[in-house]
Amino acid sequence: MLADMSSIITLPFIGVICLGAVSGLFVGSMPGLSVTMATALLVSITYTWDTNLAMGLIMGVYVVGVYSGAITAILINIPGAPSSVSTTLDGYPMAKRGKALLALRTATIYSFIGSVIGLIILMVSAGPVTKLALQFTRFDYFLLAFFGLTTIGSLTSKSYVKGLLSAAMGVFLSTVGMDSMFGIGRFTFGITNLQRGIPIVAALIGLFGFSEILIQVSKKKTESVSVAITDEKVSTMKILKHWPLGIYSSVLGALIGALPGAGGPVAALIAYDQAKRITKDPEVPFGEGAIEGIVASEAANNGCIGGALIPMLTLAVPGDAVTAVILSAFYIHGLRPGPLLFTQTPEMFSVILAAGFIACLMILVLGYTVAPLLSKVAAVKERHLFPIVATLCVVGAFATSNNFFDVWLMIGFGILGFIMRKREYSVAPLVLGLVLGGLMDDNFRRTMSLLQSSDSPIKDLFLSPISMVLTLLIVFSVLSNFISFRELIFERNKEKK
Known about the structure:
This protein is mostly helical. It has one domain (5-496).
């Protein structure tokens, strides 16, 4: 399956990977500029290139681009990508406490570890993991997404109920647009631009970026929106002592990434929740700057890279949006992803792996040299920074589709985020509900349609091994969170008495 690496790893090959890595660092760290968009642009540019060089460039953008979303998540509380939403929960609070460099180094190291582990799993376990993914029914995908929603409520909100309400709002908003089954508009109110649904980038920028501006402006004494990197001493050994959690989150991210449609946001979300459960005594509470939160989120979303490539390479089924674009690059270059890839052009598997591992090294190189320099934007005085961030929000929302309607949506979501945060409703569950909602809606409705001809629908739905495991996880998640919520209420009532 693996070809001779010496014939693949040439100076031009390494050069285009480095070029792609630098591009991925820039694109991924700019709110509104997505790795998917950059990859799609590269496909149109590189279709006349040598196939190896084209894939090297694309993999460089992909791997480093996923990592670089953590930079703005940590420095200005705006995730560069949906998969970095969980990183904002502890990265930004840590940076505000003067530990921005520690947060960035942690994200760099565990993004590297996650990417390497994900690619190793791709290399040695493509067959078995793909077979597991093939066994998932549509209802299993619904249960997986629903399990993600039950964990969302406990991520950032002190009230589990408020977290669930925020997530439910996100699921509702995900239903806006053209119905995939009947081809009619839902909740569009006659607005043509809403037929394509709620653009996730506009919602993301509004809820995290524009709402942050409104929050800061509304304060009597304005605090800094962003944080600068100080001359703090960072102990690499202190970061690496969390390696068991990093490896666990990386493997979890790779396994979730192997499920088509799940993607980095789901992986990071579940890994973050798992970190909260298995970390007994964090030095700092989760949500207030816990280093474990960054470890879990970054290891998982980068581990998802190798996992997402598994179904794309072996089944021609993309694991996420970026691999869907990479799939089109394969076809443009005359390749056939799937079982035929390993028989007709087995060297391409080696090309993908080699490019991925070199890009992993570039995470360390760029993370230790270039990424800290991006904090210079944080040194801008707040009266100058607010217009800059607002301009970035507008440009980022417009750039994704060249549609000014997205700018109005971004502003609307910014106002919604401002209201929610003022009333202590976390916006992270809403964003992730918006991401998961489409997966839930499509798979649930198609499952119900197929069950109309079933003699025993309950058996078909819940009695498969995968369905039973996912159902038990959902029940455990809901009960454990409600028990914790009731204990919190009991303690507060006791304190009042």
